[in-house]
Every structure is written in C-alpha cells, then in structure tokens.
Prior knowledge:
By secondary structure, this protein is of the alpha/beta class. About 30% of the residues lie in helices and about 15% in strands. Strand 14 and strand 15 (about 260) form a beta hairpin.
Amino acid sequence: MQRGAADFTVGGPTVRVTRDYLIKLRTLSTVGTDKVGAARYSSSSIVRIEALSVGINYGQIANNLPSPTRVAFLLQSLNINRVKLYDADPNVLQAFSNTNVEFIVSAGDILSLSDPAKAQAWVKQHIQPFIPQTKISCIIVGNEILAPGADGQLMSSLLPAMQNMHSALVSMGLDKRINVTTSHSLTILANSFPPSSGAFRPDLAQYIQPILNFHSQVNSPVLINAYPYFAYKGSPNDVSLDYVLLQPNQGSVDPNTNLNYDNMLFAQIDAVYSAMKALGHSDIEVKISETGWPSKGDSDEPGATPENAEIYNGNLLHRVELKQGTPMKPSVPIDIFVFALFNENMKPGPTSERNYGLLYPNGKPVYNIGLIRATLPEMTISASTINADIELILVLLLCLLNSAGDECLCLFDLCHGITDPCLRNDIIE
C-alpha cells in the first residue's frame, strides 16, 4: 500500500497522520460482562465507550502530576465525566472547557466566606468566568469542618458561608445550575450500627439541624467521606475483610428493620439517613464524596494492598453500574466519587495516604478495575472515514498505550506522524 498523509483538526491545532490506508487499532473491551468502560464497534466505524456513572476525586498534592490539559485528555479517554476538585483551580477548569466533564469544586476559606461580599467575590472570580464552557454543578464549602475537636469558630461560620455562597449564585442566576453543600466524615455520627440507630453527635446539635434545614430548602445533597478501610485497619481481627471489600458474605441483619447488609459502605450510608430522619429530614439525598482503598501501606496498615484496592473499587464500580441502592433506599442508586485519580506523592501521613490513586502520574493504572483491558480484539478503520473522529482515535491511542504496553508498539508509526509536540507527548507518554 502507498504511504500518504491526512490532515485532521483536534480542537484547533492540525494533526498530520502519515498513513492514508487502513489504520490498525485495537478496540477497548471490558472485564466480564459489566458495562464498565464498554466499547462498541459500529458499522459507521465510530468507536464509542460507555460513560461511567461514578465520579473521581482529582487531588493535586504531588510534584509529578501531568498538566491539567493532559489530565483532561486522559479522563476523556477513560470517559470519566464527573470530577471533584479540592479547590477551584482555574487551570483545571480552563483545561476542561467545552468537554463533557462535570465538576464539583471546593471553597475552603470558611471564615472569609461567612462575609456575604467575599462570598460574592469568590463566585465572581472562581465560577462565573468558566460558565458555561466548563460544567460546574456543585460547590463544596469546607471539608470535614464538623470533625471532633474542630475549631468552634469554623463550625459556627460553616452555615453562614454556605448560605452566602448560595445567595451569590442566586444573584448571578446560577443557583439552578449549581448547588451548595459541604462534606463530612463519618465522625459526625455518635452511633452508626445498626444503621437504623444512626445518630449525630450530641455536641453537633446546634450546627447539624440548621444545616439540614438549608439542604432541604435549596435541594442540595449531604456529602459523606466514607472509608470502610479505616474500620478494617483499626480492628482487622474483628471486622470481616469480605464485608468491607463488598465481597460475597452472609452480611449483618439490622435487628430493628430486618434489613440485611452485605457491606459496610451501604450500612454507613443508611446510618446517615437514619440520623437525618431522627431530626425530621427524609427529603435529603446522601452522596459519597470520597471512598477508596489504598494499594500500599506501612507495616501497621493491614489490608493496604493492590489486590484489595482492586477488589474494593472494582466491586464498587460494579454496584454503581447496576444502579444499586442501599437496603434502606433501594430505589435511590448510590452516587459515588472514588478517591482518587492519581497517587499523590506529597501527601503527609502514613504511606497509605500517598497510595489511593487508580493511576500513576504517567497515566498507567495502578491495578485493573475494568476501566481498560490489556487483551484487545483487533479492528480496522479507514483513514478516509475518520476525519470527523480523529480526536476519538487519538483518545483511544492514549488508552491503549497506557494499558497494553508492548501490544501497542504497532501503533507507534501513527504516533510518529503527529507533528504537534504536545499532542505527541500526550499520546506516547
């Protein structure tokens, strides 16, 4: 076959591919039969990857992470379209403009945001310039502010900061697009088992009730950071590993409701629902803003292995894709943001804190949870038919090169034909 060249446009820059005959690619497939990252080949030669309904936490406490532009490319290649940030980094929000990725952003200066004028200024600076090109659906005001031993002034300022943020959104006509909430650890509960006996800590009464009233008024969710791993780490001899890993097990029956719980995460979610119900609120949804499992830990961190991390997150994705609800709320599919996208090498604390990532900073998976698979069936696409789909082709190449190693060396001829150095680095790295 005769070599040739074809020019394609990818979001502005022109990319030259130096083959005009059939480009051999390998399509993505899934592990098992679950529709997790599933790829399909259609008669029109368009490859489509099923979107994941799970979100991802994108932390940046590291000095070796790829640029936001490359992260945008990577997440689109995995078809992850919901991301939570721990700030409102303008570089990230700009990098994801005109994509399908929806963001939850965070605002951490509680004392400042308790001033209405400063909350207004924050929204004008961090939100308004990026709407609607970047999809922003939620602002988290503070993280785990009501933890035991927290600063009393911060706790008292939390609700005013949330109210001010919502008022600022209303004044700009953004309140129907963006909601306001905060995220809590499970330490807000005085009791979590059995789930039907879930109750908030008594010392939080003056804060929790008005915050729940706010959620009800503006129709925003309660966000919980839930880590069954911590329960296992604290009592590995007393807590069933299968129970915390969402593996098959006999479960535990709530004696008050006769509901059976086959995993700790669902029990934790329902404990929060019970605690809210005790305060008169059955109208607020509970979402999981963080959950995950470390792939590595110190000698005193039992269970922190890549095998367990793969099992936990893989089982979690499976249940999300099945749209499972908890025993108490079976018709409400669980809404989860997995922690985290990358291993973060500058996080303080034990080794586990730096090893929650699904991916290494170079984009390769720490373990395989079904997003991508190394054994890839072959397909062909004619270069003359993909001028409108070259961006998708480049995205697939990135996935393949990150996941299949030597299997994808046959694609390097195509990569060598890309003349834009930034795009070329994104693909080959």
